[in-house]
Amino acid sequence: MSSSDKYVVLTTSSLNSDPTTKKLVDDFRDYKNNIIPNFPLFGRDTPFTENKQLELSNICKVHIFKDSELYDMNKSQNSNTTDAIHLVYCEHYQNPKLLSVIAVLSPDAHKSARDSNTIDAILKTAEKFHSLDPAKYLNKSA
Amino acid sequence: MLSVAHSDLGNHSVNLSTIFDIATELNKAHCAEYGPSLEQLAQYNTSICDWKEELKIVVSLKTVVHLVSKNVINTSDPQDSPELLQVVSGLLQNRINKADETYSYMVSTCNLAGTQRHELKNKLTALKTEIVSLNEDILDLRHELLNKKGLVGKFRPSERNLAHAVKVSNKSLNMEVAEIEFV
């Protein structure tokens, strides 16, 4: 994988400063860059189509499997779903290779994603992320 | 075979020895098919004071019966220990629900007075809390074993870790826009 194909995954400083959330972000980065392609941590990975505002802001979510949940290796990644935990991330408008992890939703991730306060908070974080210059971050990783 | 699991559990506070000891006995006796049911235990006219201990036995026995029937416990490979703990954890999770079933059963069949019901419910709630905590300890321990196997960074988060991550995330989402920085 050349550096131009590589995903650069940012996150907020507060998520990065906690070891547990940082670890999730690191695993997500590895997963996006196929470093741990078959590892059954991440299930369905899709844009946030349930909410138009979130979808228009390029917000996506990936289902996270916790230790006690069954990940069926005979099924595709997209068919492995869970309502418990979703990792919410954003694709930059100007370059889809630049991502930022924004939130971890639980205990009922779908319900949390319908909460207007949560939606507003995600949108404001995404807006700030979109204001970044992707070249600055993508060049840095090259 | 069981010494492997015991040594792995070593200095931890998790007490799985009862489960493994019962498993040994069950193995010896070749009676892994059935443990006593909740109904049978209730017929023993168990006093409410002893109920917690009785339910613990049910938890242990039913867990072990399943482990033995799946041959999980017959492992001699220390590398399987994390998987063994994963199975124990999953089974304990199922047992948590049993406390509710037990309460319903006792109330409907044992003609309990109001104070007795209250006492039983409190005891079962305490037991559930204990099982949940034990389950979390087991998952943490499993992570530790996976770390020892050199799988650091490649294991799934425990319930406890994820609950913590959600707290951190909620705090992060409540920050003012000006405070948000990307790294």
How would you portray this structure in words?
The complex is a heterodimer of chains A (142) and B (183). Chain A has 142 residues and is of the alpha+beta class. Chain A is 35% helix and 22% strand. Chain A has one domain (3-134). The relative contact order of chain A is 0.19. Helices cover 70% and strands 0% of the residues of chain B. Chain B is mostly helical and 183 residues long. Chain B has helices at 2-9, 17-29, 38-43, 48-69, 81-109, 114-148, 159-173. Classes of the chains: A alpha+beta (142), B mainly alpha (183). Chains A and B meet through helix 1, helix 2, strand 5 and helix 5 of A and helix 5, helix 6 and helix 7 of B.
Estimated structural class of chain A:
alpha+beta
Q: Tell me the series of helices and strands of chain B, N- to C-terminal.
A: HHHHHHH
Strand content of chain B: under 5%
- The overall average pLDDT of chain A, rounded, is 84
Major sheet description of chain B = none
What order do the helices and strands of chain A follow? EHHEHEEEHHH
Shape of chain B: elongated
Rounded mean pLDDT score of chain B = 56
Global structural class of chain B? mainly alpha
Uncertain spans of chain B, ≥5 residues at pLDDT below 50?
1-52, 64-80
* Count of alpha/pi helices of chain A: 6
Helical percentage of chain B = 55-70%
Q: What spatial form of chain A do the alpha-carbon principal axes imply?
A: globular
Number of domains of chain A: 1
